[in-house]
Request: fold
Amino acid sequence: MRKIGFYGGKFLPLHQGHVYAIIKASTMVDELYVVLSQSEKRDQALCKGSKLPYIPSRIRLRWLSQLTKEMPHVKVVEVEDHDGDEDYNWNEGALKIREVIGQGIDVVFSSEIDYDPIFKELYPEAKHMLIDEKREQYPISATEIRNKGVFHYWDYIPDVAKPYFIKKVVILGTESCGKSTLTRNLALIYNTNYVREYGREYCEDLGGCDGIILEQDYPIIAYGHKLKEYEAIKQANKIVFIDTEAVVTQFYSELYNQKHQQVLNEIARIQQYHLCLFLEPDVKWVDDGLRVHGEQLVREENNQRLKELLKENGIEFVRISGTYQERLEKAIEVIGGVFEGV
Ligand SMILES: NC(=O)c1ccc[n+]([C@@H]2O[C@H](COP(=O)([O-])OP(=O)(O)OC[C@H]3O[C@@H](n4cnc5c(N)ncnc54)[C@H](O)[C@@H]3O)[C@@H](O)[C@H]2O)c1
Reply:
């Protein structure tokens, strides 16, 4: 007879203790249901005043789905279980869990001895199996993570969940204002990775961009850049530094092709950065072979236009200027003030 088990939780957030228990449980039954018990109201209340902003259930479901994607006998299901004002109605919860599993339950897994009488009553036919009750493998709890923040317990956050928490810092500015240098330096200092300006790579591939870049190249650049961000975030360590975004691409589309493109506005609209650092063009112009607007007056006009475009797109930024040393110091100061524990 096939053995059916389930392991439930709020996974707010998912941590390595949960992962350990899920993997272990998966080796003990023929079919394991990982049940996300969620209620927006209850989970919002739980996160309120903590260091963990509420995490929508879709995100938590996505983590669990990614975690178990190569385990066909593990099924991830969601149960919305808030009824009325009660914190958690165990009876209602159990009914819904039974309904979603849709077959007899042989084992209920948890690491909570206190759940024993509850599970015995709700699932009398099933055995309650405790996994690492003392939490020796991973001495952590979601409550503790909510209290101190995910960055405090970063090593306990599974790789599938980490990208959700990465702080995205984008560095903006016109040509030759030190963006790529600052982006790289910050990434090295914060021991993380960074995203190079994809437009540069694209232009280099064409052998330069003076007079040859077409209107249709810009959306490819903007989306290509997004894809690089998506990949970089998967490997980042708490924070990621990004050189340029879609409004800067719009700026170049206007500058080189005299085209303001709606598609670039749309890409800009769905971007979500936690901090934008705007570099003023007051460092020496460096001609790298791809740049064409070196006169100071033109640099300032361009700078003004980029700021206007950012404003039109509702993007707020912190201005950074001065020598390379001052820029670096200012950026570190701003980052330290905005993010705790990076
Ligand atoms: N207590 C509640 O308010 C509540 C709310 C919703 C659902 N539930 C029910 O209780 C079950 C568990 O929910 P929860 O609130 O405890 O969820 P949770 O997300 O806090 O924990 C999920 C499970 O992981 C275990 N766990 C936590 N840290 C661990 C570690 N370091 N190592 C190993 N295991 C660890 C917990 O004991 C629990 O069994 C659900 O399936 C549901 O039936 C309870």
Q: What stands out?
A: The chain has 14 helices and ten strands. The first helix runs from residue 16 to 26. Residues 8-11, 17-18, 20-21, 35, 37, 87-88, 93, 110-112, 131-132, 135, 138, 140-142 surround nicotinamide-adenine-dinucleotide (CB under 6 Å).
